[in-house]
Amino acid sequence: MSKAPSDLSQLKNLGAASINILRAVGINTYEELKSTGPVNTYLLIKKRNIHVSKVMLYALQGALMDVPWNQLSPELKEQLLLDAEATKLSP
Questions:
Q1: Tens of pLDDT along 30-84?
Q2: DSSP 8-state assignment for residue 9
Q3: Which CATH architecture has domain 8-89?
Q4: I need a labelling partner for 56 at 20 to 30 A (CA). Which of 3, 34, 38, 81 fits?
């Protein structure tokens, strides 16, 4: 990645609103997003009752991969949704 990885504003798919949401759940850097992972970050957002769609989950994954979210494969999108559902249901 040619951009400064610690700066969320330099990541694909993340605009000001998304960055504010991430900061609200304690994610302030690329490294924190990477270590938390897109699924857990998405679930943290949902637990805070912040309304986001599944596109946010895709955007987080795309940000980590440095690709636009709409270029993620359908299989990866489906796996992300399955992982989010499984994680949400686990004790």
A1: 999 999 999 999 999 999 999 999 999 999 999 999 999 999 999 999 999 999 9
A2: G
A3: Orthogonal Bundle (1.10)
A4: 3
